[in-house]
Amino acid sequence: MATVFELDPRLAADTLHVGDGPLCRVLLMNDARYPWVILVPRVAGITELYQLTPVQRQQLLDESVQLGERLMTHFAGHKLNVAALGNVVAQLHVHHIVRFRGDDAWPGPVWGRHPRRPYGPDVASERVAALRRLLEIDGSLD
Fold first, then answer.
1. Would the pTM count as exceeding 0.70?
2. Which residues contact 119 (CB under 8 A, 6 or more apart)?
């Protein structure tokens, strides 16, 4: 098992860094179709929830609930999809996707429906900055 947290290269390639919470790295999926944020516990070698300590599990839940509530309030979504699949990227990560009736994949899942539509550079910078303010986190890795 790894002893130092490293973000999976696929997650790094598919996302934009927002910042770090108390436990989790916060990432924005680089798909402008949906407000889609991913939490990745900064714990080396973790692929499953049960591998976290009880304190870490509670912290992940707290960060997930806070993220979900703030995303839904900010974006006024109809439904929040929260999932930790791991079939492609084994590293434990939790997707938070704000869904809207009539979005490109509604009512189905977003995975595999359409090719990703990356943010343009200006829009990406604005969205990341807005999420940092919304979540009250620092983006110090940039």
1. yes
2. 16, 30, 31, 32, 127
Question: How crowded is residue 105: how many other Cβ atoms within 10 Å of its Cβ?
Answer: 16
pLDDT for position 113: 85
Residues 34, 99: contact at Cβ < 8 Å? yes
Supply the DSSP string of the chain, one letter for each residue. Answer: --SS----HHHHHHEEEEEE-SSEEEEEES-TTS-EEEEEE--TT--SGGGS-HHHHHHHHHHHHHHHHHHHHHHT-SEEEEE---SS--S--EEEEEE-TTSTTTTS-STTTS---PPPHHHHHHHHHHHHHHHT---TT-
User: What pLDDT, in 10s, does the model give residues 71-116?
Assistant: 999 999 999 999 999 999 999 999 999 999 999 999 999 988 899 9
